[in-house]
Sequence to fold (192 residues):
Amino acid sequence: MEGSHFFAILSRMKYINRWGLMRNTRNENISEHSLDVAVLSHALAVLRNRRFGGTVNPERAALLGLYHDATEIFTGDLPTPVKYENPKIRDAYKEVEGAAREKLLSLLPEDLRPDYASLFGDSEPELMALVKAADKLSALIKCVEERRMGNREFMKAEHSLRTAIADMHLPEAECFLEQFLPSYSLTLDEQD
Fold:
């Protein structure tokens, strides 16, 4: 049986830092971020099902969240202001992401590729909307934590992310903002 580099490459997510244009009090890598997005995607799916009449699969949402940035192993984390500056850059980056997705999948043995290919696509729009909201919530939490540490560098990003989440019109995301986000501004003793 031939060796595969897929999982060894995935383990390198811990070397790709986020927020490259910002001064951070604590660096965040895409491995940490992906875990946060997985946890938040699961939470949003549970909220949708319990409070808003949904029937989505929370475990599948978590899995999609876990892999949502895996292609950044090859592309790096392109800062949002650069990525969305103009349509040409955005479209070119989508092509690069597609090539990175294909490269990543090619590292798997052929018989396993179908099991992983669906983790890197947009074939599940209802769940991907929750993952995108979770991605923004994770970034917002980072902003809140940076502000709590006295770093004003993230204030504009925090405002933009709050607006972007509101513009998604997802009641489960609004619920998370109201019920769970305030705790991220507290110290550990205050959370007791």
Q: What stands out?
A: The chain has ten helices and no strands.
